[in-house]
Amino acid sequence: MDMRVKSRVRAVRAAAVSVKPINLALQGGGAHGAFGWGVLDRLLEDGRLEIEGISATSAGAMNAAVLAQGWLDAGRDGARAQLERFWRAVSEAATWNSPYKALPWAAPMGQWSLDHSPAYLMMDMLTRVFSPYQLNPFNVNPLRDVLERHVDFAALRARSSIKLYLCATNVETGKVRIFRCADITADAVLASACLPFMFQAVQIDGEHYWDGGYVGNPAIYPLIYECGARDVVIVHLNPIVRRGCPRTAGEILNRLNEVSFNSSLMREMRAIAFVTSLIERGKLQPDEARHMLIHSIRADDEMAELGVSSKLNADWGFLTHLRDKGRRHAQRWLEQHFDAIGARSSVDIHAEFL
Fold it and tell me: How much is the average pLDDT of 133-161?
């Protein structure tokens, strides 16, 4: 059956049930973005959710742009197919073209962490001593070619039906920059995913940008102020909770990375909880502030088993392993919380974020 026909059939079936509008908030996390791919794949396959807007950072920004492209081409099925093509291309590009190509497959299949790989340890040491301006003077980034092959940025800017908000960090001001649909280019996506120890800052309109995770992972406020849907589904990649106190230098750096990349989201959740409390106590009227409904798809225990080095592992087996985890967690969330969409938050903000 033609993909467009399949998409129309799915739309008809979805219309027979309650199709609910949502916004998505996609965290970044390198190769761990394949978990987010799996979540998106299952939500799209389900067909009962209509995506109005996506706020995203780093790998989440790539997922967002690729999903929007596939949706523009052929609806839900097009988005699912485009995501799979993109992640397969990421794996292939890491294998053949990356200046860091020794990293992803230095560990044997099934051993996802690269912590003990000599190649990873050497590169990790070098990035602590030398900047990417020295290690990668020509600023080679294989993800640029992959993005430009899988996303028609001119078409997205002109015709995307999904509102996109991609987050990057302004190097000089430390402020978050939100790239909206009208601003989205390959540079904007790469800026959102620019790890400063591996790649040179991305320059756009005279400003320099690093990974958006430092100040918005992702930013929630554009979804509050610029989208009609009240429900925000956050797809987490960075564990909020990691049991035990880190002891080794690597463990400490890993946990600092997680805390840093969750901090901006935690602050926004506190603000949302405060406003929600005022509305529920009658201190604010509904026309004075929006009562947002927050949902969360996360796998802290499983993601905590993966060290920060595995975020560089683009082995296809590892990526599909994470994709399948994402699909399972999305399925569990749909079973448990679909009825909450449009009615209530399915996550206890006070317990999870305060």
Answer: 93
Beta strands in 61-162 (DSSP E): none
Residue type, 217: N
DSSP letter for 179, please: E
Task: Tally the C-alpha atoms within 13 A of residue 112's C-alpha that lie toward its C-beta.
Answer: 19
Q: Are 167 and 61 in contact (CB under 8 A)?
A: yes
CB 26 within 8 A of CB 218: yes
pLDDT in tens, 11-44: 555 444 589 999 999 999 999 999 999 999 999 9
Report strand pairing: 20-26 vs 49-57.
parallel
Between CA 79 and CA 83 the distance in angstroms is 6
**Comparing C-alpha atoms, which of 201, 228, 213 is closest to residue 61?**
213
Q: Which helix (H) or strand (E) holds 170?
A: strand 163-170
What is the per-residue burial (b if ≥16 Cβ within 10 Å, else e) of 69-106? bbbbbbbbbbbbebbbebbebbbebbeeebbbbebbbb
Tokens of 217: 């992972």
- The values of phi and psi at residue 257, to 5°, are -60, -45
Distance CA 28, CA 16 (A): 35
CA distance 96 to 292: 45
Q: At what angle do helices 59-96 and 142-150 cross, to 10 degrees?
A: 120
Of 53, 51, 52, 80, which is closest to residue 67 (Cα–Cα)?
A: 80
Cα Rg of the chain (Å, integer) = 20
The answer on pLDDT for 102 being more than 70 is: no
